[in-house]
Design goal:
hexosyltransferase activity; alpha/beta; Spore Coat Polysaccharide Biosynthesis Protein SpsA, Chain A; 21% strand; 43% helix; ten-stranded mixed β-sheet; 2 domains; single chain; globular; 10 strands
Length: 286
């Protein structure tokens, strides 16, 4: 069995895709497979994926009609054979020792979920983030994080670790999990399913993952949302994901009262965060 399956959903990223895939090929740890799912790209992304599949048999390629990020990840999971799963967004880049370090930390700590932190990549410039040790209140390079704090992160982003990318998780932990499709903020609405199954979670405070900030990306579009209708759409999505989180918390009977208290507090803060008046609030909660 291959050690690590790397899932890479691909959609119209021809400009950045080779840099991403080269960073995978340059890994110091070599026992991996790459599951590329082309999610109905209309640019040259599919052809680029074919190039890498032709020159490295660790790369597998599946083409499908567009199903969105979560739909592409679900397809990745169907074809993965590795003992562990990690995700890389197709416009991002990972350091050469990305897999090596995640595996070393997993072996040392026995954690179910290991997540590294990110640096930012904009144009040809790399921006390192200097506040991680202060945020996590530690001078160590590794920090164990409680399950409840990770679940609450879905409500208030206190730890900034919602994303699937940058993690190493046993494939067995994904068994039976289907990622919800058709919503933005897919990570917020799905990641908690894995946390509820986990017993030990460790953050690696090494910036092994380069997260690209680019004009026209989904996240860039979200930053530019200014109209009331767009704000309301975003808030409805948050509420949908939070309601789903609380449903799973209830089913798991995991710290229900503590989670519900934070949940209600965040709902109260929604109108303030979005600068909504009373009529706007009535509109969003219909």
């Amino acid at each position: 069995m291959v050690k690590v399956s790397i899932g890479i959903p691909v959609y119209n990223v021809a400009e950045y895709l080779r840099e991403c895939l080269d960073s995978i090929m340059n890994q110091t740890f070599k026992d991996f497979e790459v599951i590329l799912v082309d999610d109905g790209s209309t640019d040259a992304s599919f052809s680029i994926c074919q190039e890498y599949m032709a020159k490295d048999n660790r790369f597998k390629l599946i083409h499908q009609r567009n199903k969105g990020l979560a739909g592409a990840r679900n397809t990745c999971l169907k074809y993965m054979k590795g003992a562990y799963v990690t995700w890389v967004d197709s416009d991002d880049v990972v350091d050469d020792n990305y897999l090596e370090r995640l595996l070393e930390v997993q072996e040392k700590t026995g954690a179910d979920i290991v997540k590294c932190v990110k640096k930012h990549l904009r144009a040809n410039n790399v921006f390192y983030i200097t506040s991680y040790n202060k945020l996590y209140e530690t001078e160590e390079q590794m920090k164990e994080v409680s399950k409840v704090d990770l679940l609450l992160d879905a409500l208030d982003n206190r730890l900034m670790v919602l994303e699937f990318w940058g993690t190493l998780i046993p494939r067995q932990l994904y068994k039976g999990i289907v990622l919800s499709q058709g919503k933005i903020y897919e990570d917020q609405g799905n990641r908690f399913k894995l946390y509820l199954r986990s017993k030990k979670n460790v953050l690696l405070l090494e910036q092994l993952y380069s997260y690209r900030i680019r004009q026209g990306s989904i996240m860039d579009a979200r930053r530019e949302q200014t109209s009331l209708s767009k704000k309301l759409h975003t808030l409805r999505t948050y509420m949908f994901n939070w309601d789903k989180l609380m449903y799973y918390v209830d089913l798991s009977n995991y710290k229900v009262d503590e989670m519900r208290e934070i949940y209600m507090k965040r709902l109260d803060e929604l109108s303030v965060a979005a600068n909504l008046n009373e009529e706007d609030v009535k509109f969003i909660v219909k």
